[in-house]
Amino acid sequence: MMPMASISCMLLFFLSSLSLQFISSSGYIVEICDNKVGNYTANSRYKANLNTLLSNLTSHTGINYGFYNFSYGQDRDKVYTIGLCRGDQNPDECLKCLNNSRVKLTETCPNQKEAILYDDPCMLRYSNSSIFGVVNTDTDSCLISGTKASEVDQFNKVLGNLMSNLRGTAILGDSRRKYAADNATATNFQTIYAFVQCTPDLSQQDCNNCLDGAISQIPGCCINNTGCRVLQPSCSIRYEVASFYGHTTILDPHSPPSTSPAGESSSTKRIVIAVLVPTVVVFIIVSEYCPSNLLVKIRCPFEVKEEEDEDEEEINIADSLQFNFDTIRVATEDFSDSNKLGQGGFGAVYWGRLTNGQMIAVKRLSRDSGQGDTEFKNEVLLVAKLQHRNLVRLLGFCLEGRERLLVYEFVPNKSLDYFIFDSTKQVHLDWKLRYKIITGTARGLLYLHEDSRLRIIHRDLKASNILLDEEMNPKIADFGMAKLVLVDQTQANTNRIVGTYGYMAPEYAMHGQFSVKSDVFSFGVLVLEIVSGQKNNSFSHGDNIEDLLAFAWRNWKEGTAINIVDPSLNNNARNEIMRCIHIGLLCVQENLAERPTMANIILMLNSYSLSLPIPTEPAFYTNSRTRSLLEMQSWEYDSRETGCAPSEPIIKLVQESENETSVTQLYPR
Fold first, then answer.
1. Is 142 helix (H, G, I), strand (E, B) or coil?
2. Active site residue 460
3. How far apart are CA 87 and CA 301, in angstroms?
4. Could you tell me which residue ranges the Protein kinase domain spans (predicted)?
5. How many Cβ atoms are within 10 Å of 515's Cβ, its own excluded?
6. Structure pTM?
7. Residue 334: what are its φ and ψ, rounded to 5°?
8. How far is 179 from 186, CA to CA, in rounded Å?
């Protein structure tokens, strides 16, 4: 921070739209209140949503990388916010800065729907339109400090090289951080300290473009001074001839090293995937000898007792995620039937409204369901770590006595199966929306498989587990059956198979082998359902009744793939529709090695110049086949309780929910 005596020497430049904004600065604080998009009144819903969003922004203490991007509300009253801290700020410093910023910003901009505040170590921004992943360079602010540089040409050359190197480093960051800081020596042994930073939701190319634009402002606005800041909503840069930043905080890597130091056992590599579980060492030892699901009671050569108290100790989530039971009871009107969204095999789901106005969806697990305990643990331990626009966000949980509650964001537009399998409602899903759902679901799966810190296999991807938000963006839900695997692990086995018939890959359904390619198979079935508007187990066309995979493959072979397409769709996007059918068939190949990865699927969906392999006969395909009652159910098998080694499988039907899904959906009827 500059001495107060130097503030009077500072020049402040505002490029573009100056006449449309009120801008104030105090020291290194810049606040911009944008009047272009309109104002709100003190008693408006927008104001209430803004207060709720900002007051809860820093309650997400599980975020330790200094980037917060959340939204709240619906339609025109929805608010989007981004909080970003400099890469050298620890979580406590970051939260302190953002808390101060939200107070200052709402005081300085009392009724503007869009505003932004730059403080020295952080930036806070909100808007009434989506700002996530969108480059915004409309508002440039330039602050200069220090004195005129000596030997200007040499100073600018060193500065230019330093900025270019920092830009190249920052754009390689991940979705948690795109930041780089370093120094270089100029003339007269003068050291230049600098940093560059993008909001990490930007793509690599967008970050590069934003920083390139900010760096290009230096000659015009910094006037050859030895200190300057260029501030833009999506990125910022700063340099000084005095050190002003600390050591960059270290983030956990997305994936552990593939090799271990000499003498380190393979069990050590597994520790990184067992975060939030106090009994991690027991987990590793048991998983070595007993490949069964740890959360199912098993008998092994040495017994591990899972008493209720020990179970609750495993759920060591931050206090900020834990809700009081009475709070949830009041929000759901004492779990009133009028608030019930659905009933599944493991409990009911209710909608509720917190005292601050926030809508929530609450899954109340059955008290006498052992499976419910498993669902609860899986979802808390896995979903709490996940942050992606195409995944339903877990807000918290509640443990009180025998009550086990999961609190999710409320997703208003129900689930995909509510629309796609109803002949009257599916007309609301034109091809543009269906393609949006396909690509969004693919991005969510790619995050689970490759981009999150943990590799997660969903194991129950289906139309009823794809929820749709107010803009019909897909959100993958229900992680109660998800499995956590090592980042470098390609396949795992289980003695307990759970899921929904028709979506399960053959190697999983018959042998208990699951991998990311199991989810790819489910995704392929889902794509064919979205294109056809028909369920996979009952596809009818004229007098012929076949399952979807058989019907799709027969028509693909005969050159009549257009028969697969939902008649309600027009032919304006025929090539795109045909390409999706092609991708769907590639995903359901019997040999999992022939199925593409989700990364390849994203490329196939986005690049029409990429040639696709020719699919072969899909899994489970026969010219004619019958179905037993078992095949129409969600089901599981488990090894007998006589020991850890698999024996003859026991087939058990899982209690069905009202809409034929294995677990309940978070949507209203």
1. strand
2. yes
3. 48
4. 335-609
5. 22
6. 0.49
7. 55, 45
8. 23
The identity of residue 65, as a single letter, is: Y
**Does 36 belong to an annotated binding site?**
no
- Tokens at residue 67, please? 């980037």
Please compute, for residue 488, the number of CA atoms within 13 A of its CA located in the half-sphere on the CB side. 10
For residues 180 and 170, the answer to whether their CB atoms sit within 8 Å is yes
Residues linked to residue 194 through DSSP beta bridges, in sequence order: 182, 239
Query: Which one from 140, 206, 373, 460 is the annotated catalytic residue?
Result: 460
Please measure the distance between the N-terminal and C-terminal CA atoms of the chain and give it in whole angstroms. 56
pLDDT tens digits for 286-331?
343 344 333 333 333 333 444 444 444 444 444 567 888 999 999 9
Residue 94: closest CA among 176, 216, 169: 176
pLDDT of 452: 77
Q: CA 136, 137, 142 angle in degrees (round to 5)? A: 140
The single residue listed with the structure tokens 């409990």 is 347
Structure-token match 């408006």, residue found: 44
The three-class DSSP label of residue 600 is: helix
Residue 570, C-beta contacts closer than 8 angstroms, at least 6 positions apart: 431
Pick the closest to residue 322 from 59, 667, 50 (CA basis).
Answer: 59
The span from the CA of 103 to the CA of 123, in Å, is 13
CB neighbours of residue 144 within 10 Å = 21
Task: Pull the structure tokens for residue 388.
Answer: 């992606």
Please, which residues bridge with residue 348 across strands? 343, 364
d(CA 626, CA 547): 10
SS3 at position 118: strand
> If 0-12 CB within 10 Å is exposed, 13-18 middle and 19+ buried, where does residue 85 land?
buried
- Residue ranges and CATH numbers for the domains of the chain are 10-127 (3.30.430.20), 267-409 (3.30.200.20)
